[in-house]
Design goal:
Elements lengths: L6 H11 L1 H8 L7 H14 L3 H9 L2 H7 L9 H16 L2 H8 L2 H17 L3 H18 L11 H9 L1 H4 L15 H17 L6 H6 L2 H6 L15 H19 L3 H6 L2 H12 L22 H15 L4 H9 L2 H18 L3 H18 L3 H19 L12 H15 L4 H9 L2 H9 L4 H14 L3 H9 L8 H16 L19 H5 L12 H8 L2 H11 L9 H11 L1 H20 L4 H69 L1 H18 L23
Helix pairs in contact: 2-3, 2-4, 3-6, 5-6, 5-7, 5-8, 6-7, 6-9, 8-9, 9-12, 10-12, 12-15, 15-18, 17-18, 18-21, 20-21, 20-22, 21-23, 22-23, 22-24, 23-26, 25-26, 26-31, 28-31, 28-32, 32-34, 33-34, 34-35
């Protein structure tokens, strides 16, 4: 008989037959028939659990069709519920970008807005509140699409007004009659509204709406110490979560409205708030939310997001902002925060504490850059705070917690807050700062080397720094000159510069050219655009190494091997080679465009010849160095051979002497012969002239029976 098919087979047949697509298209046939429409939506709900069905539905533009039917007459409320559930499935199981693009149409946003407002104003059941929040999440996803007309539809303005409704307390016809119940669903909506503001802040066009509806004052109302168990009828944990979320959003909004930010005295509020964060008064954060990471039982999370706002606003490099901060003692306060976070890190290092320190260092860098007076304010206390960062265990750079970023921030702070101020420079040098930088450089970390070399070049304008550079000794008594030469060789190896097996120049015409430069075709560039040869100076560390050698000198450098001297010959002529390289580019560009006149061609040829001659001269110096090394090796070998030969001769003499001794003791005739030879030798050694009346000394010992 007949057997029923399995549910899996039915689903498979529905997918193959395109049932989901057909049902989506059939919605247009039942626009005014609520019962049939709800049955189709119910069927689509079941079908939307399959990825294949969701893909077919999106191809049939289900997202936009469902959105347009959201506001149909439906006393039961099932229409909005089922449609939103299907939209969620489409966003989850199909192409999210395609679904968002369909929802980003102006008519769809109007429909979504009307459905949201209806639930906002007239919803009273628990499920209505949940559905309202679901629509708000969908609206947030649409707002992330830069092409979505959120502002044109008026949806953005409505959401901004709702987000600041309880803080601004100004009547607005768009939300007339709305009351916040402080239920869990309303708390979730408040967080979602803050999140929407953060998303909208990515569009500079939203700045006008933020200003008109007082978003910055509303967010700043949360920038204050938590002194009560709860605020505005929120519980302590809920208020803390909203506070941290408000600070996170404020960082994004403040950069769009700098004047409004300053007029609200936001810097003052943030500095007072940060002062409370490092204070001793008891406060036990809940640390429950995403933004509360690391903040349980302390004020670390508040400090983190307070500093983040300052980091965002100072990164604009607006003079009014930095002056306002410095006038209120921000430099001293930031140093206190660094000390506080550093002490906490000694107990237990976390990603959040490292981020706090990195942000504080970055803010100090911006505040002190190009201002000697601020650098003097930073100098002693700031340098004492900086030094421990340069003594960091190198193994921590690979921990993944953020030590790498922290070290970069410390180096940036050193460059901006110390270099250029002689008082600060001298204090840093006295604290053996140059030695610490060279110790870091000796790690040969490629991403660190460029920054450290740049700082050392700046420091070497100070004679004390050059002295410290020359007397530094690393592991195995390595000198700074040897370290710099090794870094040069490694850089050339990475860049693909041609050298022979001994490190000598292989291409006298283009001795510095990298593999990338050789692959590039001739490109005619305008006068204000740097060529590849010029760009290479800023991107490579070779120019910085050359600058340091100009300070150290190229003669009488300790700790260099012959191979190092071969490389040093190239370094010494770096600027000449670079000039020749630029002229080579100029010549190639000219010949690409037109033929130069005879006199110009002669000049260009002479310049190229000079550059090539320099290369050949350096090659000759390198050859001479290697020949001297070879000669020295030969001399050392000869000397070693002579020492070996002398030692062997001496050993043979000792052996012969021992054999003679044994012969004399065992052969009486040999002993008598030795005695006769001794007497002859003594007699021959006497003077031939007779000394008048002089004594005669006998050389024999009477009655001697020994054989020695």
């Amino acid at each position: 008989g007949y057997q029923p098919t399995s549910a899996r087979y039915k689903i498979q047949m529905a997918e193959i037959g395109g049932l989901a697509e057909t049902l989506v298209l059939s919605l247009s046939l039942v626009e005014n028939q609520l019962t049939e429409k709800l049955w189709i939506l119910k069927a689509l709900q079941h079908l939307s659990t399959s990825e294949n069905n969701c893909r077919q539905m999106v191809e049939a533009e289900a997202a936009s069709r469902l959105c347009l039917y959201l506001n149909g007459a439906d006393p039961s409320g099932q229409l909005v519920f089922r449609s939103s559930d299907i939209l969620w499935k489409l966003l989850e199981f199909s192409s999210k970008d395609e679904a968002i693009n369909q929802l980003s149409r102006l008519e769809c946003l109007h429909a979504l807005k009307e459905a949201f407002v209806d639930l906002l104003m007239h919803g009273f059941r628990h499920c209505d509140y949940q559905l309202r929040n679901d629509l708000l999440v969908i609206a947030t996803l649409v707002a992330e699409n830069p092409a979505a007309p959120m502002i044109e539809s008026g949806f953005a303005e409505l959401l901004i007004i709702l987000a600041t409704f309880t803080e601004v307390k100004l009547p607005n016809p768009l939300v007339k009659g709305f009351k916040l119940t402080y239920s869990y669903e309303d708390f979730e909506m408040k967080k979602l509204l803050f999140n929407v503001i953060g998303v909208l802040s990515r569009d500079p066009a939203s700045a006008r709406l933020f200003s008109d509806h007082h978003v910055i004052p509303a967010l700043l109302s949360y920038v204050k110490p938590n002194q009560k168990p709860g605020f505005h009828d929120w519980s302590a944990a809920q208020y803390e979560e909203l506070q941290l979320h408000a600070l996170a959003v404020l960082a994004s909004v403040a950069v769009l409205l700098v004047e409004k930010y300053l007029s609200c005295q936001a810097n003052t509020l943030l500095l007072v708030f940060l002062e409370w964060c490092i204070g001793q008064d008891p406060f036990f954060g809940q640390g429950n939310s995403f933004h509360g990471t690391g903040g349980r039982g302390n004020k670390i999370a508040q400090m983190r997001y307070g500093l983040r706002v300052l980091r965002f606003i100072v990164s604009l490099y607006d003079e009014a902002v930095t002056t306002n901060l410095c006038d209120q003692g921000a430099i001293s306060q930031l140093l206190d925060i660094l000390k506080y976070a550093g002490n906490k890190s000694k107990e237990r290092e976390t990603t959040v504490l490292l981020e706090i320190q990195a942000d504080a260092l970055f803010i100090l860098s911006v505040l002190c850059e190009n201002d000697v007076h601020r650098k003097e304010l930073f100098s002693c206390e700031g340098i004492a705070t900086l030094i421990p960062f340069f003594k960091m265990d190198p193994k921590k750079l690979y921990s993944g917690l953020g030590h790498n970023c922290l070290l970069f921030s410390a180096l940036d702070c050193l460059w901006s807050c110390v270099v250029g101020c002689y008082i600060a420079e001298d204090y840093f040098i006295e604290k053996q700062g140059i030695f610490l930088l060279l110790d870091l450089l000796a790690l040969k970390e490629k991403n660190l080397s460029n920054t450290i070399l740049g700082i050392l070049v700046e420091f070497c304008d100070n004679p004390k720094a050059t002295l410290h550079l020359s007397i530094w000794r690393g592991k195995r008594d390595q000198t700074s000159a040897n370290l710099l030469v090794q870094l040069w060789r490694q850089e050339e190896l990475d860049l693909g510069v041609r050298r022979d097996q001994y490190g000598m120049i292989a291409d006298v015409k283009r001795p510095l050219a990298t593999s990338f430069q050789k692959q590039q075709k001739v490109i005619s560039l305008p006068a204000n655009c740097p060529s590849f040869a010029i760009m290479e100076i800023s991107e490579s560390i070779r120019a910085k190494i050359y600058s340091l050698f100009c300070k150290l000198g190229f003669e009488n450098l300790p700790g260099l091997s012959p191979k190092d001297f071969v490389t040093l010959a190239i370094i010494q002529r770096y600027i000449d080679f670079k000039v020749g390289e630029v002229w080579s580019e100029i010549c190639a560009e000219i010949k690409e465009e037109f033929r130069p006149v005879t006199s110009d061609e002669r000049t260009l040829r002479a310049i190229a010849k000079v550059s090539e001659s320099t290369g050949r001269m350096v090659l000759g110096q390198q050859t001479e160095v290697l020949e001297n090394q070879f000669q020295q090796k030969v001399e050392d070998e000869n000397k070693a051979y002579e020492e070996i030969q002398a030692a062997r001769t001496q050993r043979e003499f000792i052996n012969k002497s021992w054999e003679d001794f044994l012969t004399r003791t065992s052969n009486y005739e040999a002993l008598k012969k030795a005695k006769r030879l001794q007497e002859i030798s003594i007699e021959a050694s006497r003077s031939k002239t007779k000394v008048q009346n002089g004594p005669v000394h006998s050389t024999d010992t009477k009655k001697l029976h020994a054989t020695v």
